[in-house]
Amino acid sequence: MHAELKTLLNLQEKDKIVMALEAERKALEPELEELNGKLSAVEETAAAAQVRVEEADERRGELEAKIEGYRIMQERRRQKLEWVRGAKEASNLMAELDLARSVLAKEESEWVRSADRVQEAQRNAEEAAAALEELKAEQAPKREEIAAKQVESDDKLQAAGAERDEAARGLDAAMQERYSRIRRGRAPLALYPLRNGACGHCFTSVPLHRRQKILTSEGIESCEACGVLIYPEDE
Ligand SMILES: [Zn+2]
Q1: From the CA of 224, how far away is ligand 1's center (Å)?
Q2: Ligand 1 centre and the CA of 222: distance in Å?
Q3: Mean pLDDT score, 225-233
Q4: In terms of domains, do 121 and 220 share one?
Q5: Is 152 in the same domain as 188?
Q6: How far, in Å, is the centroid of ligand 1 from the Cα of 108?
Q7: How many whole angstroms from 228 Cα to the centroid of ligand 1?
Q8: Which range of residues forms the domain containing residue 180?
């Protein structure tokens, strides 16, 4: 076989190893994505629960301020009542005091409900935070396993990449470029065997004179249709 073709085929074997390792590395991703998806859903729930605590707390604070304002106004009315002389004015003030008292009572019961809501929101937030911690603990062994596999895969890839580069050094720059250019195209590999007189990749028939060149290892022929390099299969 043509010496350069041998080097090319050797390089292709090394690249196949790299491709297989890359596929292996990529196969770890869906599992990791699934874990991340579950985690972020629970994280969002926990964060939303925390926001509801803050909202409920704010609402309670607003009611407290409102009630405090009513109390001050009510106190002023009472003081005013003490020195008011006119009967009409006094009865108006009494009516105001009664009305304000019922408004205050309503606001106070609203405050009690808001305080309950704060507690409920806090309970929910605690539960959501606990669920998040539980999920993290549950996922930890699986994540460690995946991380270990990734490290292992990266190591193998690095070694395979180095071997691949070493194999490529056996080719001159022009052939390296030719090989890379074919691989950047549609064919997954750069070299295919001659099969039944046709390109092993796209099955286009190879003209007789070129077939002869391939079989006698005179030169390196490429497929006229798809551009891959063609080698004699028997060897
Ligand atoms: Zn072809």
Answers
A1: 7
A2: 8
A3: 93
A4: no
A5: no
A6: 84
A7: 6
A8: 173-232
**CA dist 80 → 89, 100, 101, 102, 132 (Å):** 10, 15, 16, 19, 57
Kindly state whether residues 135 and 202 are assigned to the same domain.
no
b/e map of 136-164 (b: 16 or more CB within 10 Å)?
eeebeeeeeebeebeeebeebbeebbebb
Are residue 115 and residue 153 in the same domain, yes or no?
A: yes
Q: What mean pLDDT is predicted for residues 122-151?
A: 97
Burial label, 112 (beta-carbon count in 10 A; 0-12, 13-18, 19+): exposed
CA of 194 from ligand 1 middle (Å) equals 9
Using one digit for the tens of pLDDT, what is the confidence trace for 79-99? 999 998 899 999 999 999 999
Neighbours of ion ligand 1 (CB under 5 A): 199, 201-202, 223, 225-226
Beta bridge partners, 193, equal 231
CA 206 to ligand 1 centroid distance, Å: 9
In this structure, the answer to whether residues 40 and 54 fall within a common structural domain is yes
**pLDDT value at residue 235:** 45
Could you read off the pLDDT of 149-160 as tens digits, one per residue?
999 999 999 999
User: In terms of domains, do 146 and 228 share one?
Assistant: no
Distance 205 CA to ligand 1 centre (A): 8
- Residue 144's identity, in one-letter code, is E
Q: Please tell me whether residues 100 and 190 are part of one structural domain.
A: no
pTM: 0.71
Alpha carbons 108 and 115: distance in angstroms, whole number: 10
